[in-house]
Design brief:
heterodimer; A: mainly alpha; 2 strands; 1% strand; B: two-stranded antiparallel ribbon; two-stranded antiparallel ribbon
Chain lengths: 489, 639
């Protein structure tokens, strides 16, 4: 056996990351050598996205022959979680492309810079969902996050944008500190840095002999990830960052960090913590209850729509976490929830960026008053996304909440079920209010007719149609999420 | 195999063809004149009927083995899918609905001519046919419920078709609201079914009945029965049907006589494998059927509106069908449904022809002596009258006699039921005889010189239906059990009450013929040769009883008034009190308190979001420590 075979070097398994890096290098080359026209940059970056999608497709082929296996001397993993994560990130890139491209086009001097940051962050998160090793995980997370910090402050003329970037950076570094400290603690107490090794080590030395420091290390790692998904009590950055960042980028920033972090959390729980999940019950329950109740309380009085969506994100994180932390079937239900939530989130921020213009940061509820009169299509899709977030029947939001709560019920977590149900009811108030303002309330200053591009129209229709489709016929997606956890039963 | 596949695709066509026609006409409403509209709708109906007939023959060649088509599965657990079935029962209904739809549309082209909403009428009409076929062809309760609701909707549209008349709009509303009560029951029944069987599919449900407690079956049956009562206008939910006569007469003929109102009977036969296990439900059905049959027949004897007599007669005949179901004679119920559809459609269309010729006069006191003016209509109405009265060998005799004999054969308390049903049959013959005599025979001294026979487009359907009313009874006689064979597979595991044998049957038949003849003869004495005017009534002191009977009959025992007094006025006061005390003070008060408290605490929490990074970092550290403490406190964690 040669050394190369021993290392298990396989470029297909990191091909999405590589294709993103390749796009970044071409873009970088374009900027520093000759001045390139906008349309070339656009097509280069769009083909980069398509190439990434194709590479993800190739990874499915690899998985179907090799099954769950590790590559690059146990650094990179190819399993259902990484496949779902890669697919999600690639589709987020595809669906948010129109928003972030238009914003980048507006920041003329820094168009390529913005695109490079976006693709770099995507490549980081791709690496993060692929990694088996905590060090690898940390590197992926940092590549992704640091690009996002810079992206938040890209609109240098705007004070809010600068503030958002700095806040995100400071708090994000704190979270990274906690995260790496957790890894260190785990290594000190058990001398392991692999996801699969935790399980093996605990089985080997017996649950009662596991040092407390290793548990604290795991908690720190989880907290670092919870920060990224903006679960309470680590949610404080989210509203400020969402509000300050250029509207066209927020959809991407919010969706990609959530998708990657939740997929990693799901894998951590199904693979590493599956036999010691009971010990974390109280911890997770506290986080879930704080998230849903705190998010609802904060969201009720918001007049800024971007902050409202940020707090709604806190609530949704609580929901997803409740499933993930309850067991394998809960993980499948939560993945369903995550996917439908990301569709709605991307849709809502697309609508915001269309209405408010790409660069603006504040987005008050008064900005959409009387929207329905001149912009029927935008309002209807906006209403579909909001109702999806609220969990009205016929939308995917209802089905996801339904599946999640029935799963929790079968795990006998009645307290969580009742709290989640209560929050759903409270949620209708602040989810329906923007629709009311946009469509029903009489107002003097109506939003003028917005010319929709064909691509935007197509994008919004596809996202709205998916929201309705998964609400009526959820079977396809349910089967996909079941398949994801099948091998961990 | 090849034939099966073809049939599966084929029998879906007549279901969706009317929908297509309806949609097509709706889109081209402004474009088409009457001629073009008639062309499309008639050809569509004829095509649907032809395909239906072909499917039925193919089914018959296959010994009525059910053909199922599942269009798509919606949810796998609980098993909910959209599917259709073609078996003996739905095959009969398929042929009946498409056939009558064609005949009645032919009549309508003339009756609705020069109406300003001519095209709209056919849009609604075809939509109704589609919904009815959805109802009867469904292979599960869900699709049936869709059809159930859609026939209600299209019936509403057709009743209030002339919505400029306030009475028509009101009648449409009444029908809709009363049907809601029934649908409410139907819906609850469906929920219990889904809870018990975890599926809506008829076959899966009907196969799994053995393991279910009788109380569950009874509650399912009773709730579904409420739906059937509403749709089939049974006591106490019958008062909408006479009012529904405000709609166009041909629509009444199809919807409120031949098809939609029989949906309840159809549904009960469909669930007969469940129904047979519940003694209570059967008893409820037969008792309410009897009450309805007697009450409606009694109400019909002093009505003067040409259509209302027929409406009450429909209610009464539906009562007979319910009696048959209650007695376990499911074949007899379907048989009566079929024969009744023909002769009642004939009577309604005849009434339509009369109304048309009388320039929209509906009071039968102002008619009289029309026989010479309208010979074809008169003779065909005569055939219909004889058929419904149960005079052999016309259609009504065979089916009604079968019902009466089936009730008799059950024995015990059913002898009383039999006697009462016989009374209802007698009343039927009496009021139908009166109806015909008042319209066509008795001279009331009105001038009818401008009345002429209806146009050929109207008389042809009448002749066709007349022929059927005479001969359709032969499909299921004591000598030839045709219908029983058709329904054989559908009612495979059902215990059907069979006819008595030999001399009993002959005696019963003679008695029921006797009841029919007596009714007709009494009607002839009273309204034909007006016997009561030739003898002195005072000598017999009969005046006040007759007046009482007339009064009670025309006011239907004051039931409607009682209903209004109790439900409308009483409920209004009660609900107002409930609204103020319970809803206003208790519920609103507590809800407002919760939302206010939530709002306040939301404002308080919002102040913690200061926007300062140092605060956020403090929160971060603080909560991290709290969560860590919470984790360590957990007794499960090893220390």
């Amino acid at each position: 056996m040669t050394l190369v075979e021993n290392l298990m070097i396989n470029y297909v398994v990191i091909s999405p990351t590589l294709s993103l890096l390749f796009t970044v290098i071409i873009l970088l080359f374009c900027t520093i050598t000759i001045s390139t026209p906008m349309y070339i940059k656009k097509w280069v970056s769009f083909s980069g996205v398509l190439l990434t999608l194709f590479m993800v497709f190739l990874k499915f082929g690899l998985y179907s022959t090799d099954g769950i296996s590790a590559y690059f001397s146990n650094m990179i993993l190819s399993d259902p979680f990484s496949l779902v994560g890669n697919t999600l990130i690639a589709f987020i890139l595809l669906f948010t492309f129109s928003s972030f491209w238009k914003t980048s086009e507006l920041i003329e001097s820094k168009t390529t810079e913005a695109l490079i940051l976006i693709f770099m962050s995507a490549s980081g998160f791709m690496l993060m969902v692929d990694s088996e090793n905590f060090i690898m995980l940390f590197i992926g997370l940092e590549i992704g996050s640091i690009s996002l910090y810079a992206l938040a402050g890209l609109n240098r003329g705007d004070q809010l944008s600068n503030e958002a970037s700095l806040k995100y950076f400071l708090l994000g570094s704190l979270a990274s500190c906690i995260f790496i400290y957790g890894i260190a603690l785990l290594y000190v107490s058990l001398s392991i840095i692999g996801l699969y090794e935790i399980n093996i080590a605990i089985n080997y030395i017996g649950l009662n002999n596991v040092p407390l420091t290793s548990f604290i290390g795991i908690i720190f790692i989880i907290v670092g990830l919870l920060f990224k998904v903006a679960a309470a009590p680590f949610q404080a950055w989210a509203p400020d960052v969402y509000q300050g960042s250029p509207t066209g980028y927020v959809g991407y920033m919010a969706a990609v960090a959530k998708a990657a972090s939740f997929i990693v959390l799901a894998r951590l729980i199904t693979v590493s913590l599956r036999f010691i999940l009971d010990q974390f019950d109280l911890f997770f329950s506290a986080v879930v209850i704080l998230s849903v109740l705190g998010g609802a309380l904060f969201a009720t009085n918001q007049s800024d729509l971007k902050r409202l969506i940020a707090y709604s994100g806190v609530i949704q994180s609580g929901f997803i976490l409740s499933g993930i932390s309850s067991g394998v079937f809960g993980v499948s239900a939560s993945t369903f929830y995550l996917i439908t939530y990301i569709i709605q989130l991307v849709g809502i921020f697309t609508v915001f960026s269309i209405i408010s213009g790409q660069l603006s940061s504040d987005f008050q509820i008064s900005n959409i008053s009387g929207l329905f009169k001149e912009n029927k299509f935008i309002t209807i899709t906006f209403a579909i996304f909001m109702l999806g977030l609220a969990g009205l029947p016929l939308t995917s939001g209802f089905v996801s909440k339904f599946i999640l709560i029935t799963n929790l019920w079968s795990y006998e977590r009645y307290v969580l079920v009742s709290v989640l149900m209560l929050t759903t009811v409270a949620g209708f108030y602040f989810y329906l209010r923007p629709i009311w303002v946009a469509a029903v309330e009489k107002t003097e200053n109506v939003v003028e007719r917005i010319l929709l591009k064909k691509s935007d129209k197509l994008l919004l229709s596809v996202l709205a149609a998916l929201t309705i489709y998964f609400g009526l016929l959820p079977n396809t997606l349910v089967n996909i999420t079941r398949w994801m956890v099948e091998s961990y039963l | 195999m090849c034939q099966e596949v073809k049939l599966e695709l084929l029998f879906l066509l007549p279901i969706f063809l009317p929908l297509l026609t309806s949609f097509f006409l709706f889109l081209n409403k402004k474009l088409f004149n009457e001629l073009v509209t008639n062309f499309f709708t008639l050809n569509g109906a004829l095509l649907a009927f032809a395909i239906a007939a072909y499917s039925f023959i193919a089914l018959a060649l296959d010994k009525f083995k059910p053909v199922n088509v599942e269009l798509f599965q919606w949810i796998s657990n609980p098993d909910i899918s959209i599917g259709f079935t073609l078996d003996g029962l739905s095959g009969i209904m398929l042929i009946l609905v498409t056939g009558l739809s064609f005949v009645i549309q032919l009549f309508s082209t003339s009756y609705m001519a020069k109406d300003e909403n001519h095209c709209n009428y056919f849009v609604y009409f075809n939509f109704f046919v589609f919904s009815m076929l959805l109802l009867v062809m469904s292979s599960n309760f869900l699709v049936m419920f869709f059809g159930w609701e859609l026939v209600g909707l299209s019936s509403y549209l057709l009743i209030s078709f002339w919505s400029k008349k306030p009475a028509a709009a009101k009648a449409g509303n009444k029908a809709f609201v009363i049907n809601r009560i029934g649908d409410f029951g139907f819906l609850i029944g469906l929920m219990i079914i889904l809870d018990t069987f975890n599926t809506f599919d008829f076959y899966k449900i009907l196969q799994n009945t053995s393991g279910v407690a009788e109380s569950t079956i009874t509650s399912i049956s009773l709730f579904l029965l409420l739906g059937a009562f509403g749709k089939s206008a049974q006591f106490p939910l019958f008062s909408w049907l006479p009012d529904a006569m405000e709609g166009p007469t041909p629509a009444s003929a199809l919807i409120h006589a031949a098809t939609m109102v029989t949906a309840g009977v159809f549904m009960l036969v469909r669930i007969s494998p469940i129904l047979q296990y519940s003694k209570i439900a059967s008893l409820v059905i037969i008792v309410f059927g009897l009450i309805t049959a007697l009450l409606a027949a009694f109400s019909a004897i002093n009505q003067f509106d040409i259509k209302k007599v027929l409406a009450y007669s429909t209610i009464s005949q539906l009562g007979f069908m319910f009696i048959a179901i209650g007695a376990g004679a499911y074949v007899a119920a379907i048989f009566h449904l079929v024969t009744h559809a023909f002769f009642k459609a004939l009577l309604f269309l005849g009434a339509g022809a009369v109304i048309h010729s009388m320039h929209h006069e509906q009071d039968i006191r102002k008619m009289g002596g029309l026989r010479k003016k309208m010979p074809i209509t008169a003779s065909m109405m005569g055939v219909g009258t004889l058929a419904i009265s149960g005079i052999p060998p016309l259609a009504g005799f065979w089916s009604k006699d079968e019902i009466l004999a089936s009730v008799f054969v059950n024995g015990g308390v059913y002898y009383i039921f039999w006697a009462l049903a016989l009374g209802a049959a007698f009343l039927t013959a009496f009021y139908m005889g009166r109806h015909w005599l008042l319209i066509f025979e008795k001279d009331n001294g009105f001038d009818h010189s401008d009345v002429a026979e209806a146009p050929k487009a109207m008389t042809r359907p009448l002749l066709l239906l007349g022929i059927f009313s005479i001969f359709i009874g032969f499909i299921n006689t004591p000598f030839f059990h045709g219908l029983e064979k058709v329904l054989h597979v559908t009612l495979e595991n059902v215990e059907v009450t069979h006819l008595p044998k030999g001399i009993t049957l002959v005696v019963l038949a003679v008695i029921s013929i006797g009841a029919g003849f007596t009714g007709l003869i009494v009607a002839f004495f009273l309204f034909g040769i007006e016997l009561h005017k030739r003898i002195d009534l005072k000598k017999f002191k009969l005046e006040s009883p007759i007046k009482l009977v007339k009064d009670l009959s025309s006011n239907i025992f004051y039931l409607n008034k009682l209903g209004n007094l109790f439900f409308v006025s009483g409920m209004k006061n009660f609900t107002r009190k409930v609204a103020v005390v319970v809803d206003g003070m208790l519920i609103d008060g507590s809800v407002n308190f919760v939302s206010n408290a939530f709002n306040k605490s939301s404002k308080i929490t919002s102040t913690t979001q200061t926007g300062l990074v140092r605060n956020y970092i403090v929160y971060f550290g603080l909560f991290l420590v709290i969560l860590l403490a919470l984790f360590i406190v957990n007794p499960l964690v090893p220390r």
